[in-house]
Amino acid sequence: MLACARLGAIHSVVFGGFAANELAVRIDDSAAKVIVAASCGIEPGRVIPYKPLLDGAIDLASHKPDHCVIFQREQATADMQPGRDVDWAAAMATAEPAPCTPVAATDPLYVLYTSGTTGEPKGVVRDNGGHMVALAWSMKHIYGMEPGETYWAASDVGWVVGHSYIVYAPLLYGCTTVLFEGKPVGTPDAGVFWRVIAEHDVKLLFTAPTAFRAIRRDDPEGKLLKQYDLSSLRGLFLAGERSDPATLEWAEAQLGVPVIDHWWQTETGWPICSNCMGYDLLEIKHGSPARPVAGYDIRVLDEGGNEVPAGEIGALVIKTPLPPGTFPTLWNAHDRYMSAYFNNFPGYYETADAGYIDENGYIFVMARTDDIINVAGHRLSTGGMEEVLSAHKDVAECAVVGVADQLKGQTPVGFLVLSSGVNRPNEDIQSECVAMVRDKIGPVAAFKSAIVVDRLPKTRSGKVLRGTMQKIADSQTFKMPATIDDPKILAEIEDALKLAGYAKA
Q: CATH number of the domain at 2-94, please?
């Protein structure tokens, strides 16, 4: 990333958990000239060959890159295609130093793909100048850091947190950044975070709630934590998904430092709302990322675009203009940028999150207003999964919803209505559908549950009541939708969910 920035080359990092067809879509959209990849990824207990995925993606893509530069790991050596593929080590041995290339502040720095409601990825464009200003400012004022101190964002490069707060922000501000390859548990145990903090004098940790749910599951009493000196740590920031109060309270009790849930998006590139450690800390309210950060004017609107009273749930929007560092457009899709984010509420950026503002100005982010779900901090489109499921020869209709998961925040569950005349075992079809999603979207989707049902609950106009299905799965109370076609279907859905281990209350 930094080498590309030095050259003025627009870069796009794609997480290694995506399947070949998903990577192909991104290759086509970006029209990448060069792809840099490792021969494999290394996970606890397994090695994932990357090169076959890359070769498969290029075969599927209409656009063909000029070259692929491959870093060969000894755990899985990749086959190379003559003329196209270049060995990293060989190229480095003969490479000549290149000077920095001046670019305009408004020139693109990188493109980062995020899920769209149509199943098509959205290439979020980040500019150079505004991005540098916002991130450098945030290190001091939001995170309370000083140059020379160590900052650790325990995320992945390939997601916005990794881009902003592993690579760019700490280095722009003169902080040491921690680049961590591992898991919060199992590499080797649930104390690895505490070891890294102690060894590197980390002042602030930033991670997803999923990580702390995993640590809490393996070490509920914090016995491993007590083995390390964590006196350097001043605070913990959480983002990527809504933080449940139980996890926040556990982290506070174990660490004895402020635990701050803050809210932002790939599109914004840096926090929208946060309790700011560079100022006097506000009261921490569990369930709220506190108040808007400087530059963000947040409003809550109803469907008609009218502001709603304090405490009432509506669409969370940001009054334009957006502050520096946020996205100026989508890659080669400015019309889509306007239609997806600005047309529904003219004069406002539509976050696609729903929530409310309380009487003290605290923001509460409650749910998504579209089909994007958060799986372990990864934003994934249920619409994209439905496209895969609907391609199964025996599936006539389907729906995917995100249900609550103690570890991952949300996991997808698919509902399948089979074509008439299908007499194969449901179990076979369900397992085939799970395999299809894993193949087409990748393990990152964590898609493990597909349930055959007789029919889906719908409004009289034909809209599937996904929100109601989600509430049933999560054992939440719900109002019978006024427009439902047949209320009896909800009982059928509940029975099917109970058999699958959901709707337990």
A: 3.40.50.980
Residue 162: DSSP 8-state = H
Residue ranges matching CATH 3.30.300.30 in the chain: 372-499
Taking each helix axis from N to C terminus, what angle separates 209-218 and 245-255, rounded to the nearest 10 degrees? 70
Contact (Cβ atoms closer than 8 angstroms) between residue 417 and residue 457: no
Q: Which of 111, 112, 117, 113 is CA-nearest to residue 352?
A: 117
Whether 172 contacts 200, CB under 8 Å: no
Sign of CA dihedral 28, 30, 36, 37: negative
Instruction: Count CB-CB contacts under 10 A for residue 5.
Output: 18
| Concatenated DSSP letters of 402-444 | EEEETTTEEEEEEEEEEPTT--S-HHHHHHHHHHHHHHHT-GG
Statement: the pTM of the whole predicted model exceeds 0.90? no
Q: Which tokens belong to 346?
A: 């003219």
Token readout for 172 is: 């722009």
Q: Are 111 and 19 in contact (CB under 8 A)?
A: no
Q: Residue 294 and residue 292: Cα distance in Å, rounded? A: 7
Please give the Cα distance from 258 to 121 (Å, whole number). Answer: 36
What number of other Cβ atoms are within 10 A of residue 75's Cβ? Answer: 14
Residue ranges, comma separated, of all CATH 3.40.50.980 domains in the chain are 2-94
The pLDDT of residue 78: 95
Which one, of 235, 153, 225, lies nearest residue 189 by Cα? 225
Instruction: From residue 281, give the alpha-carbon distance in Å to each of 125, 137, 146, 278, 357.
Output: 32, 17, 17, 8, 19
- Tell me the chain's radius of gyration from C-alpha atoms: 23
Position 111 scores a pLDDT of 97
Tokens of 386: 């439905």
What's the mean pLDDT when you consider all of the chain?
91
Q: How far, in Å, CA of 484 to CA of 498, rounded?
A: 22
**Is 263:273 a contact under the CB 8 Å cutoff?**
yes
Residue 69 has which token pair?
């530069």
- Whole-number Å distance between alpha carbons of 432 and 92: 44
DSSP-assigned states of every residue in 441-490: T-GGG---EEEEES---BBTTS-B-HHHHHHHHTT---PPPTTBS-THHH
Specify which residues 411 forms β-bridges with: 403
- Sorted by sequence, the CB contacts under 8 Å of residue 90 that are 6+ apart come out as none
Give the CB-side neighbour count of residue 403, counting CA atoms within 13 A: 26
395 near 412, Cβ under 8 Å? Answer: no
Q: How many CA atoms lie within 13 A of 267 on its CB side?
A: 22
User: What is the third-level CATH fold of 372-499?
Assistant: GMP Synthetase; Chain A, domain 3 (3.30.300)
Residue 313 pLDDT level (bands cut at 50, 70, 90): confident
